[in-house]
Each structure stands twice: as C-alpha cells, then as structure tokens.
Amino acid sequence: MILFTHIYTKEMKNNQKKSIRIISRFRSILVSLLLGAFALSFNVAVSQEAKQATSKLAFKMRLSPILSNGIRSVKVNLTKMEDGKTISVENLASPVRLYFGEVKKYDPSNGTGLISKAYINREGEGEFEFPDNFNKVTSGMHEFTFIAKLESDSLYQDAEKEVTVSDAKLTIEYNGKDSIKTATACLMEWKGKEYVPVKEGELKLCIKRAFNFLPFGPNAPSTDENGNVSGELPLDVPGNANGTLTIAARLEDHETFGTLEITKDVPWNILPKVNEARGRTLWSQGDNAPLLLVISSLVIITVIWGTIIYLIYLLTRVKKFGKMP
Amino acid sequence: MENKERKELTETEAIDLLHELNEDMLPKKFGIVGNSWTALLVIMLLTGIYCYINQIRNGLSITGMRDFVFWGIYISNFVFFVAISLVGSLITAVLYLLKVEWRAPLSRISEVIAVSAIVFAGLIIIVDMGRPDRMINMALHGRIQSPIIWDVMVVSTYMTLSFLLLYFPLLPGIAFCRDRLKGIPKWQHKMYQILSLGWKYSPQQYAVVKKAITILSIIIIPVALCIHTVTSWLFASTYRPGWDSTNFGAYFVSGAFLVGSGGVVAGMYILRQFNPSYKKYLTDMHFDKMGRLLALLALVYAYFSINEYLIPAYKMKGEEAGHLNELFTGYYAPMFWSVQFFGMVLPILVLMFKKGRKPLPMFIMAVFVIVGAWFKRYLIVIPTMSFLPVQEIPEAWKHYSPTFQEWAITGGSLAGALLLITLFVRFFPIISVWEVAEEKGVSHDIIYTHLHEGNEK
Questions:
Q1: Closest chain A residue to B196 measured between Cα atoms?
Q2: Which of A254, A266, B4, B415 could join B44 via S-S bond, C-beta 3.0 to 4.6 A?
Q3: What does the pLDDT look like over A146-162, one tens digit per residue?
C-alpha cells in the first residue's frame, strides 16, 4: 500500500512537471502567436492606410460664378469618370471651401479669404452663399478670383480650382407703349476706367417661368456695337397672377464674365387662366371639381355626419333618462 | 338579438348567471406580468415619440425615404392599421345584423382593436408628413377630386363611428364599474361617473342603446368598406406597376377582414391566458367559429390575391413584368413567398381541420396572419417605388431601407395601439355583461332588475 502510494505520488509529480512544461510551452506559443497576429494586423492596417491614401478617388471640379440682379454667388459642380462615363459625385461627405482672392481666413475689410463652404448634393452640385456685405466691400474691384478647395476627405483626393471673372454690367429695358412690345438688354464690361459695350456677346432674352426661362427674340442672339440685343415679346404669354410678366436677360457661362442674369417685372395684361379649356373635370385645378362629384360628396357627408349628430343626440337622451326618477 | 330557439333561463338560473358574470367581468388590477407588459409598451411608445420629435427637428431626411422611394414603412404601417380596424365593422356590425349570437363576447374585443388601430392610423399618417403644420392646407385648399382628401374624410368618419360603436354598448359596463368597484382611486371613480352618463340600467336607456347600436351597425358597414377601398385607391389611382389595378379595392377589403379577424383571435387567446375566468365566455366553441370564419376569409383573400398577381403575370407587360419578377424571383422573393405561405396558405390548411381550430393552433395561425399582413403591406407599398420612368439613375436611389428612427416610430405606434387596448382591459370590462347575458338567455327584465337592484343595495 505504502509502495503503491509512493509510486502513485511519484507519478503524480512527474505528471505535474509534464503539465507545467506543456503549459509553459503552450504559453510561449500563445504569446508568439499573439505577437505575430499583432504584427500582422499592424502591418495590414499600415498597408491598408497607405493603400487608402493612394487609392482616393479623383474627380473634376467646375466653378460657375454668377451675378444675378447684382448679387454674386458661385456654383460648384463635381464629376468623376466611372466605366467610361462622366457621372456626378454624389457621396462627398466633406464640404468644399470657397476663397476670394487668396486662401486665408476671411478679412471683413476687403472681403478676401474664406467666403463660405458648401456641401455637395446628390447631383454633385453645391452653391456658396456670400457674406451680406460682400458687394459693399468689393464695390471698387473689377476682377474677381475665386478658389475652391477640397481637403482631407476620406474618399476623394484633395483638389483646388481657381476661376477669375471680370466685372460686367447687364441692364434690361422694356417698351410696352406700342402694340408691339419689345425688350432691349445691354451688356457692358469694365475697361480701364469705365464700362464699355461688349460686342457679339451671346445675350439671351427670356421670360421667367416657374421653373425655367422661356427664350424670345432672335434665334441666335448677339450683341451689337452698343452691346444691345432687342427682341419682340410674344403677346399670348400669360403673365403672373399680379398682372406682371418677369422678363430676363442672360449671358450663360461666359469665359470672361461667368453667368450674368437680370430680371425685371413689367406690366402685363394677360392673367393666367386656370382651366379655361378644361372646365370642371377630375383633373382640374382649384375649386373646379365636377358638379356631380361635389353634390354627391356633399350628400354622402351630410347623411353620414347627420346620423352621427343624431347618435350624439341619443347620448344626451341616455343622460336625460338617467336623471329621471 | 331575439332568437326563437334560444333557451330561456329560469329566474334563479338567470340571477346566478348574472352574479357570476358580475364577478368575472369586473376589471382587475394587473399583476407583475401585466405591469411589465404595460411598462414595455410605454417605453416603446416614448422611444417612438422621442424619435418623432427628432424627425420634426431634422425633417424626413432622418428616414430612409428619398425623392424616389417617397413612401416607406409609415405608409405600409398606416395601411396595416386601417386594415386591422375593419374588424370592428365585421364582428360587431355584420354579425350583429345577421343575429349571430356567439359574437357577443367578441364584439367589444373587436371594437377596442378597431378604435385603437384607427386612432394610430390617423396619427401615423401625420408622422409621414414632412410638415405636419401644413395639414390645415388640406382643409383650406383641398381638392375634392383627390383620393387623399377622401381618405382624410373617411378615416375621421370611421374613427368617430367606431368610437360610438364602442361607447354605446359600453355604457352599462361603465356604470357597472362605477357601482361595483370598491377601493379604487377617486379619479377612477370620477371617470366612471362622467363616462357612464348617469346610467341606471333603465329599460328606456337600454332601448336607446339598442337603437343606436342598430343604426351604427348599418351605417358603419359602408363606411368601413369605403375606408379601405379609398385607401386602396390612393395606390390604384396611379399608373405605377403593382398599383395600377382595378382589383385593389376588393383585394384590400378582403385582406383587411382577414387580418382583423386574426387580431380578434389573438386577443381572445391572450385574454384567456391573462384571466382564466374568461375561459367560460371565450370558449373552444368561439375559437371554432372564428376559425371557420378565418379560413373562409383567407380563402376569399387567396382568390383576390390570385387575381392580383396571376393575370398580370400571364401578360408580363413592360414595367409590370419587372415588378413581378422582383417579387416572384428577385430581391423581395423570400419575403413575398413567406407572406403568401405563412399569412394565407398555412392558415387555410390548418384551419380546415377541427384540431387546427383549437385555441393554441388558432393563436399561432392568427399571429402568422397578423405578421404576414404587416409585411404584405410593406410589399404592396415599397417594391414598386424602384420602377421609375427615369433612365440612368444611381442604383442606390432605387433602394429603401428604413432607418432606426423609422423603426422606432413605427414600433412606437404599434406599441401605442397595444397600450390603448391594454389600458382598456385594465379599466373597463372587455366582455359585455349584458350582451353575454342576453346571449345566454337571460331576459332583459331580469338584467334590468338585478343590476339595478344590486346597485340600490
């Protein structure tokens, strides 16, 4: 029994030693594995980061300076190439910043520096809002340089685009005294010390509608030596509800001046007539439903809600009976 | 309600039965399960309200809806609520007019479901509006030609009628709580006092209530048919594939009756589990009858479903083909076939057999019908949005996946409807004492005398 106990104890000790050895070996394997995994993941992360840095997407930036009724703004449009097609950048998370003159903080004394930032919509477009006093502080300037910058976006490469436009002036006059109504627009640019007419400018005359511009006047409009374009207004165009018509002159995407636009409300006597031809139909606007529909709806509503009112009266009867002895 | 074959009880039997009914039907305080269930619903509702406030602040951009997929789970949830609310008219009105007596203990359950569902249908449609403050413009500038205006009118009318159909038969029950519930808080007693309208169990009052129920039962049926037909026209009056269908009205109404009946069966089962004394009134016989009704409604719905999908699938024209392919074999196929099988085919098969019409299998089938119905509305509303008459639009714009906020608001609305039902069970008799007494053959005079005298004592 003693012998057996001795052997058993010895064997146990041996086993214990063996287990300790296995555990220590296992521990060292585990530590090496962990270290290896860490090194590997670090390597992968670094290489991924490097790959991400180099594999950022390229895109094309286009700036369109606009002067509309004396108010300046700039639109930005981003496109990229995918499968040989040009498509809009639709998923840009970072804003594009617009600077005037030079890339620096905004200087309220002369309007230079950071003007604003714009987020791009799903059509790849954004519009920069200008500070309220921008026109005032830049009133003496005749050349405007805008710089748009995109920096540190996780998906797209950094980019910068610069555009310079010269000062120009657009006016529009309306002549409605005669039976033939005309409009004349004049395009002038700043040269030296004064505004001078711009010849052969593609100045369009239009009527402003709800969503777009309806052109009128010459088919291929071009300004004469006085910078003028004239056109005859169509007389059958309905005006606005307040008895006016909004006429406009537009110079679109000019390489020196950008987009120029001016509008003017002129008196007009053709008011919009709703449903003139259609009359009372299911698809008419406003209160022009078919009489049968109006009458039948009113009858149904009166019958049902009349019954509901009667039922509410019955509730008062219940209450009245409750008060009776 | 008079039935020549009904066995009249003797006065002693009738009084004993009334006494038993009184004891069983009084609303009781919730135990731990009831309180936990209520707390869960309150938390879900509050989460939904919080997310809705967030939506009002930030606009609908927090949802997954965009220019192209402009109707999401709010609208499918709205259609679901409108559908389930139709059960009030079926169980209470149709079966009442047909003098089906076994419907007595079920009528209030169905009416409570109807009122809760229609209230939240009205609310969820407001949630779907980007600018709810502009709702007044519907009244000021609404065009009577627009199905949206018809829907607003019919939802508000049906809500009023459903409320009245719940309230009139409930008057004796409220008075009963007012007179018999002891040791309740003052506000609760005051509430019963106001809502009971001075009810004193008089024959004249019963006569008025019966007259009102008859009028309501007649008038609510066309309004109920209108509400779901008009809801279907919101879709069917467009040219979109999957919606441009002349079958939509009947298809929607049949589906609504099915899901509503499923709701009543689920309610019956849960009530029996919640309060074992209800087992005396919500018997296996009621489950059997509801099972037959459910099977019939599922068959009718299957008929309209086949019409809805088979004939367009035979023609496979233009964009309709693309839409059907998406449903049958495309992205939505797993959901589509699961809904058809679990929400319609399986209930028909199970409920054909007597064993399938026992409470537990009935409950399981009812849950399948309800869940299936919700996802069916999702399939009606969403997939067609990806078929647009616009070329070369980014693929991402065609897809819609609801955001967490949308799920939370939708979940909150479902919890809100369940909370209304739960609170009703907590404070009012969910089974009508006087209607069940009448069903069991207690004469009206005995009901009046016993309840009135009991009150006087």
A1: A319
A2: B415
A3: 999 998 888 899 999 99
